[in-house]
Write a structure and sequence with these properties.
This protein is of the alpha+beta class. The strands form 2 sheets. Strands 4-3-6-7 form a 4-stranded antiparallel β-sheet, with no helix packed on it. The protein has a 3-stranded antiparallel β-sheet with strand order 1-2-5, with no helix packed on it. Strand 6 and strand 7 form a beta hairpin. The model has no long low-confidence stretch (mean pLDDT about 80).
Length: about 170
């Protein structure tokens, strides 16, 4: 049961935007509004997201579906259906309310399709290993081909003409 009190003194409208996050899998930007003043606020939020190649999202200010009581915290989210799968994104929320209240919150995210990146990394490693074996094979083949033919034939001839070791009692042949 809400209890309303009238307090003597100036009305203070103050608001902060906290815990801004981009959940790319769910396609949502989540954030919290905290009323730091002593008046009930009906805020409006504008959302902007920039990527490496420019603006990705620019949503005009619109009314938030909740009123924020003094001293309270409200968790909200904004849908974003066009979240890129590979980019570096900076999200900025600008919240305004009656009484001249203006607050900003921001978050950054590196969006990488990890299964594809892992596959590309594994493919690069496999290509590197295959290239290493290919170079090794070519170098060995060239080293074999660089020997003079006489040395090869002399080595094979010596191996085929080995004389049997002397056996016997130690007498003269």
């Amino acid at each position: 049961m809400p209890l309303r009190l009238r307090v003597a003194g100036p009305a203070l409208a103050a608001l902060t935007v906290e815990r801004v996050r981009l959940d790319a899998d769910a396609g949502r930007i989540t954030y919290e509004l905290v009323n730091r003043g002593n008046t009930v606020l009906a805020p409006r939020v504008a959302v902007r997201a920039d990527g490496v190649f420019g603006e990705l999202l620019d949503r005009a200010p619109h009314r938030v579906p909740a009123r924020v009581a003094p001293g309270s915290r409200v968790a909200l989210s904004e849908p974003w259906s066009g979240v890129p799968s590979f980019d570096v994104v900076d999200v900025r929320l600008t919240v305004t309310a009656a009484g001249g209240v203006r607050a900003e919150g921001s978050a950054s995210a590196r969006l990488v399709p990890w299964p594809a990146a892992a596959g590309a990394g594994a493919g690069a490693v496999a290509a590197g290993v295959a290239a290493w074996f290919a170079v090794r094979h070519v170098v060995r083949r060239r080293r074999r081909g660089a020997r003079p033919p006489e040395a090869d034939s002399a080595a094979t001839e010596a191996a085929t003409r080995r004389e049997p070791a002397a056996t016997g009692t130690g007498g003269k042949p």
